Amino acid sequence: MKPIVRFTIVFVIMHSITNHSIAQWIRTGQPSGIAPITYMYADDNVQLIVAFQDYYSLGIPFFSQDDGKTWIRNSLTGISSFFAYDSVWYMGGISGSYATLYSSPDGGKTWKQFGNLDNGGGTTKFISQNRKTIICGNGWYTYVSTDGGVSWMSAEYGATSVSISDSLVVACDGNTIASPAMQSVPYGYFIQIPSPQNVKCATVLNTSIFCSDGSQIFLSTNKGSTWDTLKTGFSAGSIKHLVKYQSKIYAILADAIYLLDDSLTSWVKYASLPADMNSVEFNHNMILATNTYSLLRSTDKGLTWSGQFDGATNHSGNIYCNDSILFYVEHWRGFHVSSDGGASWLQRNSGLEGVLEFEKLGICGNYLFLTCNNGIYRSSDVGSNWSKVNFPGRTISEYSNNGSTLLAVNPEGGVYTSDNYGLSWNDLTPNIDPKVESGFGLWSGFIHDNDIVLSYFIYSTSEFGIFKSTNRGETWVKIKLPNLTSNYRYKLMLRDGIYYAIGESEVCESEDSGDSWKVIVTVPTSDYRDGITDFYKSGKLMMYNWTGNGENNFMVSEDTGKTWSSYQNNMDRNISVTNFLVFRDTIFASTGGDGIWKRDLDHILYVRNLEGSNKYFTINQNYPNPFNPTTNIDFVIPKPAYTTLKIYDLLGRDVVTIINEVLNPGQYSKKWTAERISSGIYFCILKSGNYSATIKLILQK
Q1: Which of 207, 279, 302, 647 could bridge across to 271 with cysteines, CB 3.0–4.6 Å?
Q2: Which domain holds residue 491?
Q3: What do you get for the CA distance between the two ends of the chain, in Å?
Q4: Could you report the per-residue pLDDT of 669-690, keeping only the tens digit for each?
């Protein structure tokens, strides 16, 4: 037996190093957060990208210093603006009913509130600085400080943006432009600059002022005394913003960016833009563009765009897959596709214009079917184009297929099949027991060979159970489920020829095509619960997700339900999982408001136990990873043992010892702060008794 044990040790350690890249839950393709993007800022000098999300108007800031690859969430809330000057970062927001400012002298590590902006209410819409002059505004008042924020001058000028050069400060309120007078004037330290009418945006370059009314662009080189109209060729009302970047002026239109040449006489198309972008920033060789739910970047002047802060995985929806592609249906924003395992997502809504809500996805052969608020749509090219289907029912709550036959379940009590990919439909509803035809609802169903199985609820008697047909819907019989505590909302599922009914409090299984059922999973009762949201079984592996008392729980059993372990780990228990699936070697979980999460299935199944014990020895992948400079390492010790947790570099040299003591059984979490350690790849090795495991850490400064 000893040679076998030695072989197992070698295999386990190598397997841990090479295959466990996701040992706990991480979001796919975007930073933490659950709500719309309301602001974006990019700065070359500090290598920084900032995006704000407005979660119930809290204004949550996220910072990225690696071109958007990783994000750090700041603890402040109510934030709505950002600016960096020299080594100082500024953020503006709201506290109580007053506009509030914060500053950080150490790259965002610590923040302090400063300034006294008591006039008016509302959040800080912008903040900027030039040398000692700081200017900010909340849409009602504009404030200027010339002593680093110690004292402020206020003006009843409702600026919404500001542009600063070494010699000019110009604010715009969406109709006029003005400049600080630095002395009391009728408007309170601000003086209006003569300008064209209805100025929507303005920017300054050295001693020149550029402004636009949305249709034309104007230039003044004498602080507004006279104005020239620049030739553009742009259509009326097409100009959204003017941006200064690296001593150049750019005009932002709905679908493109144009650059003003050095002669100030012509505009050259600089880049293409995706549709519906709200704002544009430049950062190094990148263009950053945002709409309400997405922050995109392009490094090839708009030829291609990729998600940085991607709203496709940042809201509520459900996830699906075929053999090679992941699909995500987001309730408000539509259909998304990922062909790289969830690393990036593409929105594909061509043909879905005017749709307000997106619900369910069905897959049959090479066709996709999408339930929307105004009908059913079909795509034959992986969602690139959609067309409306002539469906006899109002909506579809569940799809299933058996080869080329598609089953569609209408929650109002209808069931239909199509043998030509949705071109025509067979209504099977009249064949169901006429005594309940007008008083029942259908919640879920599937088709398997000649069987069609539906979960039903009869409103008049509160009866719930199974409708089953063995002849493709010609005749039906009712099958009652066991006497259970769940209500009528049973989700039906077919896997490996076994039928499953998933309720709020239990999961039932049938191994005889639905004729008889047994309970295989029960969850604790709760005063407040959504119950079991999804279930998976393959061999002895069983997984389910349920919410109770406002907390989410992702549970795993490797012995067919005899024992269960929670694998919630770093996923916040306030996050509600709507559904999950296994795609290749990864579990993907979609949530009700917090995007898509994933983790390695391989890690869940991986038990490093060389003594044959049935208890788990586990080390999770550190998070965040890559990190700078602090990361978390979570692990489980199954029994009392002398334990070491050490960090090694690529040459095998001992960098630091985190643990060197006897530990009792339990779950542990340790932080490693690598402030004085160089960037690079490191290995963390956990040893406890006869157990050993290794994970790879990436320090990226």
Answers
A1: 302
A2: 312-524
A3: 46
A4: 899 999 888 899 899 999 887 7
